[in-house]
Structures are given as C-alpha cells and as structure tokens.
C-alpha cells in the first residue's frame, strides 16, 4: 500500500464548493482506499493498492479528470506521497513564533517557485520571510500583516494560480499525523 496526499487548488473559495463527503466518494470511486479529508480546504489522504499502483503522474491525472468531470471545474492538484510530505514539514526552516503564520507553498512548476523565492531580498524581514526548499517554498508572515503582505500579493498573481497551492503548517502537521 502506498499513501498519498492530494492537495486540491482553489476549492471552497471563489464559487467552487465541494462537500468533503462528495470528495471522499470521488476518490473511493477511483478505487482508492482509506480516504480521509483534513479541514474543508481540499486535503485528501488516501491509499493506493501496490498491485494496482500507477505512476504518481497517472494518479494525479486520473484524480484531476474525475474532479473536473464530477464538480465541473478545471481541477488541479498537488500529489505528494506521505513520506515526502513528512520530510517537507519537518524541514520547515523557521522557528515557531507567537503571532506568526507558517506556510508551505507547493508547486507544479519549479521555475515559478524559484521566481517567487527570488523576492526574498525585497521582503521586510520584520513582517515575513521565505525560503526555497526541495520542491516547496516555505513562508512565514506576521498574523497582523497576513494577506496584505508583499509576498502574499506577489504570490497571488494570476500567473501562479494554476501552479501553486499553499497550506498552513498546522494543517500539514494534522495530515501527517493521520
């Protein structure tokens, strides 16, 4: 058995509403087992039987096609195996600080993550910091600044919407403890 995590981009925002029960049913309909969701923002943990396992790219494509068909939107996910997600979470480079949010940005286009990481020197370190990881971008921001931060505005550009998705570190820690 192989455990994966699918991080869905852009659901339960901007008019794309998907009930978590429907999401579980969709994954089960694809033959995946032990399907669970974590918070209502599109985090699905599931198992793939070794005998029926396809490549991660094929699994990703199959899930995106099923989501697009069932929920009538252009689905895009990040698919990551449970062990890799655990490594990414444990590699978070910034110490936990009171009054700060910790995030991990995942992406399907490494050039977009590298481009976003290039903004590190422009950021006010008193408000936020970013650091490029292995296939992810780590970000911490003061809660008082939040979505009004310089990096939040840069990463929200339309150019990055189809290739990135961001998760709070607390959510990712809940996922890996399942």
From TrEMBL:
InterPro entries: DUF1697. Gene3D superfamilies: bacterial protein sp0830 like (3.30.70.1260), SP0830-like domains (3.30.70.1280). It holds the Pfam family DUF1697. This is DUF1697 domain-containing protein. It comes from Cryobacterium zhongshanensis.
């Amino acid at each position: 058995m192989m455990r994966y995590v699918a991080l869905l981009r852009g659901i339960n925002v901007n008019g794309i509403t998907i009930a978590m029960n429907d999401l579980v049913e969709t994954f089960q309909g694809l033959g995946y087992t032990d399907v669970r969701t974590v918070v209502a923002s599109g985090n699905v943990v599931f198992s793939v039987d070794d005998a029926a396992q396809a490549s991660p790219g094929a699994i990703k494509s199959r899930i995106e096609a099923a989501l697009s068909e069932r929920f009538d939107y252009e689905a895009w996910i990040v698919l990551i195996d449970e062990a890799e997600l655990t490594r990414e979470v444990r590699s978070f480079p910034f110490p936990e600080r009171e009054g700060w949010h910790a995030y991990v940005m995942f992406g399907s286009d490494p050039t977009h993550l590298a481009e976003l990481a290039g903004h590190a020197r422009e950021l006010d370190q008193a408000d936020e910091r970013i650091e490029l990881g292995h296939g992810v971008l780590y970000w911490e921001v003061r809660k008082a600044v939040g979505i009004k931060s310089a990096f939040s505005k840069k990463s929200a550009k339309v150019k990055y919407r189809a290739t990135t998705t961001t998760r709070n570190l607390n959510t990712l820690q809940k996922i890996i403890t399942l």
